[in-house]
Amino acid sequence: MQIEVAGNQIELAEGALCADALKEGLSKKQFKKVVVAKCGEDMLDLTAAVPTACTTLEPVFADSEEGLVVIRHSTAHLMAEAVKKLFPTAKVTIGPSIKDGFYYDFDYERPFTPEDLEAIEKEMLSSVGANKDFACQTMTADEARTYFADMNEDYKGELIDDLGEDEYSIYTHGDFSDLCRGPHVARTGMLKAFKLLSVAGAYWRGDEKNKMLQRIYGTAWQDPKALKKHLFRLDEAKKRDHRKLGTQLDLFSTHEDIGGGMIMWHPKGGLVRAILEDWERKEHLKRGYDIVQGPLILKQELWEKSGHYENYKENMYFTEIDDQGYGIKPMNCLAHMLIYKRKTQSYRDLPQRYFELGVVHRHEKSGVLHGLMRVRSFTQDDAHLICRPDQLQDEIIGVFHFVKDLMDLFSFEFRAEISTRPEKSVGTDADWELATSALENALDSIDEEYTINEGDGAFYGPKIDIILEDSLGRSWQCATIQCDFTLPERFDLVYVGEDGARHRPVMLHRVILGSIERFVGVLIEHFAGALPVWLAPVQARLMNVTDSQIEFSEKAKQFMLSKGIRVEADIRNEKLGYKVREAQVEKIPYMLVIGDKEVEAGCVNIRSRDGEDPGMVTLEEAAQLILDAAQEPFKLGGMSYSFSG
RNA sequence: GCCAAGAUAGCUCAGUUGGCAGAGCAACUGAUUCGUAAUCAGUAGGUCGUGAGUUCAAUUCUCAUUCUUGGCUCCA
């Protein structure tokens, strides 16, 4: 038969293997890097026969995305083999490839320890050394069921029952066999670079009602160099961890006496928040929002009326005062409803946009708490937009533009998701339908791409979530836009229309940063602690060379302060190198050095944290340089801001 | 909430097979007056997360609890 391999026409014998075909069509060097073959969309083992219908066979190389998936999947099998050898009573379940690596879930009578991982890794290496063949065989469902039942692998039986296929492929290398779709590398010797990373609990099939299994995570790459690079990246990411930097830069802390998931903001962290919040207030006023504020606790009946008591109770804190039940707010909407209702609203008054930097408390499960990213008490930059149905789409677009401006300001990459009606929810199907299409239409009308997240909406309405990625590749939800027809109904919100009749407005819940806590956490990681000049708690630090410049340093500090620059003076009796190092470690944007020369000329010598050195300039020029740098991001985006203005 | 690991000085960490608790940095004092990532010397600093139990003796062993971490489930 005639077949095309990587652009070359070659002649193949009937029943030839993919490996033979690729060997023929590729150079020796290239062939060494091949993991599996690909015919159209079908991935094929190298040991598989070339399908008779196949006209073009492509190689999948080890360093390609698809190749890495195969390597990681095969490494998961390799690990399962080692585990079964060392712990024969462990039962295997599933072991897929994931981003940067793989995992395998086992059911075993005792937890695996770090020492176990070392032993498993050693066993894996010995299997690689033995260079065992991966062999694939096909069985009927019944055969497969019996096959795994004989080995006491009941989880595999459960999978076979659930998948309901007629035929199953089974991969075997050495003494280890696993139910698997494949494909796999041809021999264990092709797995050259892997490392086991951690062990963690995971529910069987991801359901918390099921048994907790033990999941071993590992990473695998095409060669040791790529593995080393990945481990180095992990290490670098660790250095950016906002929890580590939060301590180092003295921004915030937690304390067990306060309770889990509660943050204390230190002077510098508090200042960062204050700058962000101040900027947000101005930005909201500019965009036609009103600033409002509701109380922290509200009567329980109100939460019952809104549906929160029924749908969100397990996340709420309650208290009782004078035999009256109160709920601590997990959301800010209720007071905003009542603010709207304080007077008769006319169609001319709409939209009403109520903005509140509202502190909310949510009882999150203890295991999910994570630094600033997941806490139990946080501040939302929350707003409720109450508008006429005909204004809804424009309001959604307006909010989306706001979000985009913000993402540009920090150069964040983001994606949008629309979440639809969940099981536990309130409202009619018609309203949900209307609300969901309003969100979709808004994004469609401005050509913004989005994915659909079925059943993931809030209990009162569908939502657009804006998801951004942090330095560790984790996704964080910050902004969200939620459509709500229910609360206006429950609170009987009305406006008087042009026709003199009463009409029902619709409402949007939305946040831009999301939680201030989380957003600051994301910023810290994004900038590795080196916050942009406009956000840096300390923008400049003056440092004298010897005691004789103390007086001028004080004068310079007062001058900078009068210009609205956040400045400190380090006049300690320390060597200049020491002061510079300290400022550098604290990631202060500008160091202003003052020696005898500077005093004489009435100047400072500027050194920036990223190595730029504008040299000796007058106090006036230095101040201007810093103020300009603080304005830089606003010249790029559609925003304007100045902390002093 | 579930599975697992951890908590020792302000920070980073060592240590005790159960017998007076250690380092570096930071702090404080003194010397030094120095030009762009760590000057030298000295002093002080701990109920070994918290509460019980076992023991002649617990930071160490057991149990409970709080908090943190890695996952699972769930979310801004």
Task: List the topology elements.
Elements: E1 2-5, E2 8-11, H1 18-25, H2 28-32, E3 34-39, E4 42-44, E5 56-61, H3 65-86, E6 91-92, E7 97-98, E8 101-107, H4 114-130, E9 135-140, H5 141-150, H6 154-163, E10 167-173, E11 176-179, E12 193-203, E13 212-221, H7 224-239, H8 242-248, E14 252-253, E15 264-265, H9 267-286, E16 290-291, E17 297-299, H10 300-306, H11 308-312, E18 317-321, E19 324-328, H12 333-340, E20 352-361, E21 377-387, H13 392-409, E22 414-419, H14 429-445, E23 450-453, E24 463-469, E25 475-484, H15 486-490, E26 495-496, E27 502-503, E28 506-515, H16 516-526, E29 540-544, H17 550-562, E30 567-570, H18 576-585, E31 590-594, H19 596-601, E32 603-608, E33 615-618, H20 619-636
Parallel strand pairs: 1-5, 16-20, 22-23, 29-30, 29-31
Antiparallel strand pairs: 1-2, 3-4, 3-5, 6-8, 7-8, 8-13, 9-10, 10-11, 12-13, 14-15, 17-19, 18-19, 20-21, 21-28, 22-24, 24-25, 25-28, 26-27, 31-32, 32-33
Helix pairs in contact: 3-4, 5-6, 8-16, 13-14
The protein binds one RNA strand of 76 nucleotides through strand 12, strand 13, helix 8, strand 25 and strand 28.
- Number-wise, the strands total 33
Structural class: alpha+beta
State the end-to-end distance: 78 Å
- Strand residue content: 25-35%
Q: With helices defined by DSSP (H or I, 4 residues minimum), what is the helix count?
A: 20
Write out the strand line-up for the largest beta sheet, numbering strands in chain order: 16-20-21-28-25-24-22-23
CATH class of the largest domain: Alpha Beta
Q: What is the name of the CATH architecture of the largest domain?
A: 2-Layer Sandwich
Low-confidence stretches: 641-645
Question: What's the CATH topology name of the largest domain?
Answer: BirA Bifunctional Protein, domain 2
**How many domains?**
4
Q: C-alpha Rg, in Å?
A: 31 Å
Percent helix: 25-40%
